[in-house]
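Posted in: Structural Biology > Protein-Ligand Complexes

Title: Requesting predicted complex, zinc ion in pocket

I'd be grateful if someone could produce the 3D structure tokens for the following input. Sequence and ligand are given below.
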Amino acid sequence: MDEITPPPADQNADFPAGGDGTRATGSAPRRRSARRGRRWWKILLVALVAVLAATVGGVALAYPSLAATTCPGCYGLTELRPGLHVEDGLTEAQHGRAREVADQAARRVTGFYGTRLSSPDLLVCLTESCYRRIGGGRERGVAVLNRSVMLSPRGLDPVIASHEMSHVELHARLTSAAAVPQWFDEGLAVVVADDPRYLTPQPAPASAPDRCLVAPSGQPLPVTLEEWLRAASADPATYARSACQVSRWLDGHGGRAGLLDLITRLNAGEPFATLVRM
Ligand SMILES: [Zn+2]
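-- Reply #1 --
Done. Output follows.
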């Protein structure tokens, strides 16, 4: 954080040029009062910046993603329909694809939960330069602060979109105090998205005991976001293992009903570790 630089003794630069002469050359008490006012404004601004930095510092994505999801139009995106923002200059066919992906992804989330409590804004880029501009990286898509989803040119797909929307939906259903480990959040997103990279298609063949492509290794799965990012980038099978674990848990607990019950009990203050034993 920058230190507060005291203003020069009699600077009036913040008065508008050509403005009211009496303000710029006012009496001594009025000048002192103006200086005090300016100082308080600076202190307030610095405090505000500090609070913002602290808030944003706690999440994986910061400015400009936060700014882009707050004002997509400021980052070269057009609102195709309420809640769906796409890169400027796309063709009609590309617009159609964006609508289709948004609709299919919403149907997957609703189909899984029965209802949908969240309706995150979707920000869709079809060029890497657009995606970088709104703060994206090498990922295909990402949920931002549980209120928006950004899709890269590699993520305009119902699987990726519904995966990210699943994160938003789960967190919309959890009270702020309730928490699930990252492996559960990610594994559930794979199940909701029905991602064929990590689970066999639904329903599992009668001959198969479950939908797992990779069985958990017996090692604990990543709990925090930091642990998850480290593990998943070192070993892509982390998604498949987590999805297997969540899929097996759902099979053994009545699927949707079991998940909704889990959410209710987490919101009532019961710890995850006592509710989900694998
Ligand atoms: Zn995810």
